[in-house]
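Intended use. Records such as the Amidohydrolase entry shown here are meant for training and evaluating sequence-to-structure methods. They are not intended to support clinical decisions.
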Amino acid sequence: MVTQPTRYLLRGADAVIVDDGTGQTVLRHVDLLTEGPAILAIGPNLSATEEATGAEVIDASGWFVYPGLVNTHHHFFQTFVRNRADLDWTKLSVIEWLDRIYPVFSRLNEDCFYHSSLTAMAELIKHGCTTAFDHQYCFPHHAGKRLIDRQFEAADLLGMRFHAGRGGNTLPKSEGSTIPDEMLETTDEFIADCARVIDTYHDAAPFSMRQVVVAPCQPVNCYRETFVESVALARDRGVMMHTHVGEGESPVIAARHGMRTVDYCAELGFAGPDAFYAHGWELSHAELARMAADGTGLSHCPEPVYLVGAEVTDIPAMAALNLRIGLGCDGAASNDNSNLMHCIHSGYMLQCLVAATRSHPVPEPAAFLAYATTGGASLLGRADIGRLAPGLAADLFAIDTRRMDYVGTRHNPLSLLAKVGVGMTTDMTMINGRIVWRKGEFPGLDEAKLAAEAEAALATVQF
């Protein structure tokens, strides 16, 4: 890790998307000053102020500066199964796909989990993501228990703000789950390791770079007691909870427990302001209303909709209920990239596609940027990230709009990512006041070497 200045002055940005807590707005032709992990000031002519003394000046001419994106659902380990024709959703039923994909996952070793995490986080950073939550529920017996530890190691190398979702599966396939025996844990094993990683890594202080979420994989693949014990541990330690809900499993849960998934989770206490679910495309209006009333959030993953093809998540209904919404990439088994910025564009366009079938209007394009920033911060329980304002974390990315790609678009930075989309990497990404991506490079790191090491790790697994 290279040593960097403690202060940066981004001078003369064409636009900075700011938020004082009342919503995102655009400031034109201003400077942005950082000190340590935080934003010190945003305004015109900051270079003349005493606070800017000693800062490294970066020419931000032509730049649009955005708050760093917050990814609220991913499966980094799936990065090693991208672009595989034999796992194509369009050629398999969901059951056939699950029966084929989980044995593949069960073969991954510890190094695979490290390098796949590094690969996913690198791509996220290149495209403006500064905080990533990963739902790591794959624990093959031969890979051991230190997989979350290796993920934190990867995050440290790249400088990523990382929230680790310690997932797990406890229900055997013989009792109705889709999980091979070599990936199963007991509830006691799962809870014990959740406690270990919380005690080892979780940091609740402002500007924390490491947090842990208790995240049993999903109700259909876990015993009831797993969720009960997860709630008890999370509430005792003051951490967030996460799981998959509303992606086609509700009829199964209803057959087992006499109620659909949202009601089942709420009955177990796995709901509230300290809980958020992933997906939610099959949920009824009443279920969404219950989530909103409980304060439970939802991570919407738009790109898997293309492959699963079941239903476009009803974001307008969720927005009308003031349900807390974030965006997620999801894993490479159902989305072959780790580009949250692209999800902003996909999310908006998918809602436009089905607008005529909805009872509520599609939210404004700028709302989808908010889902990926302030919305994501809310899901993760963070008040110090997700927006650009003095005193908050210096998490941001910049796009130089002096390119043909942006001619005719520069009048509205707020809707640019959702309506137009950005098809290239950022010109700079900063996390916690440290530049982690700039001019096509990870400062102090050899990307080609990292990629070769990841390919070598992948080659050790027989698929």
